[in-house]
Structure formats: C-alpha cells, structure tokens
C-alpha cells in the first residue's frame, strides 16, 4: 500500500526558498525510488514579504489551513525591515505553540573531522542529540513593560514552567535515551534561577526513578557549555529548557561544522497536529538570490521528516549521503570551501542518494 504524505511548504524568507527547493527535489527523488511512498506539496507565501504587504506574517486562519497536513517544511524566517520579534513570534512560534510541537530535536553530529574547530576531536566524540522544550519556558511571551520611556521604566519577562510541560519533555528524553541505549544529561541553572530551574531539577529527579536503566547526569548551563567545547564526548542525549536549548544547539552546530549543517525538528509526538521540519541557519539575507546557499541543513531536515514518518532507513541514508558528499569534497558551497551552487549540491546529492 502506498503511503501518501501531504507536505505544507513554507519557504519563507531570504535563502529559505532556495534551500527548500533542494529538499523538495530530494523528496521527489525518494518518491521515484520508493514506490511505497508518495508526496504531495502545497506552498504558502507566508513570511516577511507577506508581512510587508499584508501587515501580518500569515493568514488569520493559517493554523486551520495547515492542520490537515502530515508535515510542515519551513525554509527560514526573518528579513531586514521586519523586527525579529515579530517575524519569529507571529509565524514560527505561532505554529510551534498552536500545534503543540513541544519537542525540538537538534542533532549535533560531526560528519567530517576537518569541519570542527575543536582540536583533536574525532567524529565519535561529537555525536549527540539535544531534546529542547519547545512550547513554554523562557519563550512563553509573558511579562509586562511598565512606565515605558520614564525614568522608572521596568520590564518583566516571565518564564513559564508548568508541571505538564516540564515533565513531558523530560520523559520524552528519557524514552529516547532508553530507546537508543544512551545516557541522558539534564541542563539547568538552579543555583541562580531559584524557582523555574529548581522545579526543573526536581521533576528530572522524579522522572529518573522510572528509568533506573538510563545513566544520567545534571549540569548547570555554564558548565555544560564549557564541557560541550572541551569534552563533547560526555554527552549522548541532552534535555533542557527552551532558551538554554536554543543557545546550546547553536554552540553544538559550531563544533560540528557550522550552521550550514544545523537542522531541527519541531515535533508533536502524539501526532494530533503536524510536526514541522526546518534548517536553523536563518534567512541569510546577505547571500539570498546568489545561488550559493548551503542546502545540506535543509536536506538533513528531510531526514528528520522521514524518521517522523517511520521511514528510518531513508533517514539514515540521507544523513550518510550528506557525509558522503562532504567526504568527496567535489560539490560544496563556498561556506565549506567549495565553488558549487545550491542547485549543483542538490543535484549531486540526489545522484549519490539514488545510485
């Protein structure tokens, strides 16, 4: 029986349309190779250009339009002329929260040892998965701005950590660690954040009792940042809050070769809503339209999408093909020292994937 998957395309801003186009080519190549899979696509124009024309980042009923898709494939959000807090909160965060995509999965994996700035670290040393809480915490958008423009001006930014939200992300991470047979590290900052992070640590300790087979560790975020640079091999699965996860995963991308290989999945594990897959390199407006954007992160997000669809073999094959194209060093974009265009990298990738 053919598995039919409907995918909503949100190419977005800057280089987003260029890299999403290569990811779609990969999906179409998989469809040609695997007669058990069929993909249909519908593209939506939402993003900063849409905002400048319509005064909003997406249609008012945008979530209703996306509701019945099997996955959302996002390119990038953000462009000069639109404040970052508007572009992020009114599109990306609106989808994450509206569809309860409370799990953010960011793999940090060194695919080619020449890419890492860390001296003496091999591929086996940099291979971890960050499970980031993706729906509340420091990005809840709660707070107040009092006495704006006055000498007494006060700004309050409130992190929201619910029992439900905290326990479910920690339990998800434990399940993933158990499934993979790996250790789990919790990252918090309880010595300074005496409510939210003390609560986080206490929930971690509670849930840990249900997983005696999983080896655990717990670090403060500053120490974890140091260890990620000095001893990345100590991390297998990492679970942390929204803000800390955002920061640590970009640091992880840096030690694994840069944002050109950084990908992220925004997952609703219960599958009540569609999950969303995206490269996380941003819109890079300085190189938009030049045809030199690196599509490999966007292609890696296709691997995460395939994993979510239960097509893990294709997911593994995509990642191994990314490694292969890095190793052969013939068709790479300028950020990796090559001279290939975005489309040339995509074409070479498909040839390797389907050969």
Overview of this protein structure:
It is a single chain. The protein is an alpha/beta fold. The chain folds into two domains: 1-112 and 259-355, Isopropylmalate Dehydrogenase (3-Layer(aba) Sandwich), CATH 3.40.718; 117-255, Isopropylmalate Dehydrogenase, CATH 3.40.718. 40% of the residues lie in helices and 22% in strands. It contains eleven helices and twelve strands. It has a ten-stranded mixed sheet, sandwiched between helices. A two-stranded antiparallel sheet has the order 6-7. Helix 7 packs parallel to helix 8 (242-255).
Task: Summarize the structure in short.
Its EC number is 1.1.1.83, 1.1.1.85. This protein has 355 residues and is α/β, with parallel strands linked by helices.
Structural descriptors:
single chain; 355 residues; alpha/beta; Isopropylmalate Dehydrogenase; 2 domains; 10-stranded mixed β-sheet; two-stranded antiparallel sheet; 11 helices; 12 strands; 40% helix
Topology:
Elements: E1 3-12, H1 16-33, E2 37-43, H2 48-54, H3 62-66, E3 71-76, H4 84-98, E4 103-109, E5 127-133, E6 137-146, E7 154-160, H5 163-180, E8 184-188, H6 196-208, E9 216-220, H7 221-230, E10 237-240, H8 242-255, E11 263-267, E12 275-279, H9 296-308, H10 312-328, H11 342-354
Parallel strand pairs: 1-2, 1-3, 3-12, 5-10, 8-9, 8-10
Antiparallel strand pairs: 4-5, 4-11, 6-7, 11-12
């Amino acid at each position: 029986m053919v598995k039919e998957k409907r995918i909503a395309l949100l190419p977005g801003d800057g280089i987003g349309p260029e890299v999403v186009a290569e990811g779609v080519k990969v999906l179409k190549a998989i469809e040609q190779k695997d007669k058990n899979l069929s993909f249909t696509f519908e593209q939506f124009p939402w993003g900063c250009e849409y905002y400048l024309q319509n005064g909003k980042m997406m249609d008012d009923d945008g979530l209703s339009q996306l509701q019945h898709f099997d996955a959302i494939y996002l390119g990038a959000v953000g462009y000069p002329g639109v404040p970052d807090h508007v572009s992020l909160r009114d599109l990306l965060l609106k989808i994450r929260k509206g569809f309860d995509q409370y799990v953010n999965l960011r793999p940090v994996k060194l695919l080619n040892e020449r890419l890492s700035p860390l001296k003496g670290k091999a591929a086996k040393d940099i291979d971890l998965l960050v499970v980031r809480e993706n729906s509340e915490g420091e990005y809840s958008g709660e707070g107040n701005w009092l006495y704006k423009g006055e000498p007494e001006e006060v700004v309050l930014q409130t992190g929201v950590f619910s029992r439900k939200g905290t326990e479910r992300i920690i339990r998800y991470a434990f399940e993933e660690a158990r499934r993979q047979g790996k250790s789990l590290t919790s990252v918090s900052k309880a010595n300074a954040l005496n409510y939210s992070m003390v609560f986080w640590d206490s929930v971690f300790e509670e849930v840990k009792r249900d997983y005696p087979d999983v080896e655990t560790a717990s670090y403060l975020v500053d120490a974890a940042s140091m260890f990620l640079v000095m001893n990345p091999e100590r991390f297998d699965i990492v679970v942390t809050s929204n803000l800390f996860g955002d920061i640590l995963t970009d640091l992880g991308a840096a030690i694994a070769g840069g944002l050109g290989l950084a990908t992220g999945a925004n997952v609703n594990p219960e599958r009540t809503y569609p999950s969303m897959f995206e490269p996380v390199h941003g819109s890079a407006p300085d190189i938009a339209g030049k045809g030199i954007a690196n599509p490999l992160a966007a292609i890696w997000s296709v691997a995460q999408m395939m994993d979510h669809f239960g097509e893990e073999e294709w997911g593994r094959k995509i990642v191994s093909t990314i490694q292969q194209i890095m190793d052969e060093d013939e068709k790479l974009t300028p950020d990796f020292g090559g001279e290939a265009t975005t489309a040339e990298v995509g074409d070479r990738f498909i040839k390797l994937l389907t050969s």
